[in-house]
């Protein structure tokens, strides 16, 4: 006789059918696959964040302590090379492993996998930044480190002539990279057309934006299946709680003739983490249209005026919302 039960204690058992056991096991595995997908995107977000923070930190350091020693300048180049390597590696990891996970969920010949491949091809065809960053990832693995220069730029703000803005700009030398070899013709042409001073900030932001769009698609592809898995696990936990008032950690076991054949645990924490990553890791598909700054506004509307305008817009949105509901 095969008995399938989920229990955290020997004496607290609920019998399961073979189908229930199999379904619960598949759901538990599925939740962790979905969590893996979100965690891989979090590596991209985290490495992009570190790269952007390093730009701000480098600019502030330049303002407070302007260094011209070769060792200091070389150290800056090494730092941004390391951060760029981390970012590109995280993106490559995402491409390779999420493709495998989509196959695991839907199959190698599935329409979902075809849609993912089409989305990647679309980004490659539409964006020179995407193509260059894909090429740089291969270059740094097989040839060398791409960055050779990090500039500290200072310029006057035309809207406030008394203000000087400090910016850190890592540069690539497009023709020099092409001369070193290892790039496909289309990517070599892109690098050549970008010239000797290629602003890496634009490349990383455009590439991150492309990765965010791809991840938005992945989320939409797996959403309905993830919902089924989550509901299955929560039903199992709820079923156990209804009988034994316990749901924190429940063991699911398969027995044959009184001997353990297979067992696994179900618990709610992975689902909570999955929901958290979905909420906090926004797929910032328009990141290139935004920037972060701590600059003080010396001209334009006052803080009070900005707050007044914001309040008016909120009231307008609320009024439109009530109008859509058909209320006064």
From TrEMBL:
Put simply, this protein is called Uncharacterized protein
Annotated organism of origin: Lacipirellula parvula
């Amino acid at each position: 006789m095969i008995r399938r039960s989920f229990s955290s204690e020997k004496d607290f058992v609920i019998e399961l059918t073979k189908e229930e056991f199999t379904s619960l096991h598949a759901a538990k595995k599925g939740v962790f696959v979905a969590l893996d997908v979100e965690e891989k995107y979090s590596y991209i977000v985290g490495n992009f964040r570190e790269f952007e923070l390093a730009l701000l930190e480098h600019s502030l350091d330049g303002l407070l302590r302007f260094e011209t020693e070769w060792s200091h300048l070389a150290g800056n180049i090494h730092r941004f090379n390391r951060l760029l390597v981390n970012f590109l590696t995280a993106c490559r990891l995402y491409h390779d492993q999420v493709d495998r996970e989509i196959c695991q969920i839907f199959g190698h010949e599935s329409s979902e996998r075809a849609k993912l491949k089409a989305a990647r091809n679309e980004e490659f065809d539409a964006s020179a930044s995407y193509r260059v960053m894909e090429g740089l990832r291969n270059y740094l693995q097989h040839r060398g480190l791409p960055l050779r220069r990090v500039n500290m730029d200072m310029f006057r703000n035309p809207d406030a002539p008394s203000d000087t803005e400090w910016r850190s700009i890592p540069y690539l030398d497009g023709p020099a990279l092409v001369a070193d070899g290892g790039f496909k013709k289309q990517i070599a042409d892109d690098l050549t057309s970008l010239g000797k001073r290629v602003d890496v900030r634009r490349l990383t932001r455009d590439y991150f934006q492309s990765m965010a769009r791809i991840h938005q698609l992945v989320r939409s592809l797996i959403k309905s299946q993830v919902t089924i898995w989550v509901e299955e696990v929560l039903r199992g936990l709820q079923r156990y709680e209804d009988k034994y008032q316990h749901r924190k950690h429940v063991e699911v076991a398969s027995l044959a003739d009184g001997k353990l054949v297979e067992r696994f645990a179900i618990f709610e924490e992975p689902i909570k983490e999955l929901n958290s990553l979905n909420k906090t890791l926004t797929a910032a598909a328009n990141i290139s249209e935004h920037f972060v700054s701590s600059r003080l506004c010396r001209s334009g509307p006052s803080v009070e005026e900005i707050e007044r305008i914001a309040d008016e817009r909120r009231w307008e949105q609320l009024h439109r919302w009530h109008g859509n509901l058909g209320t006064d």
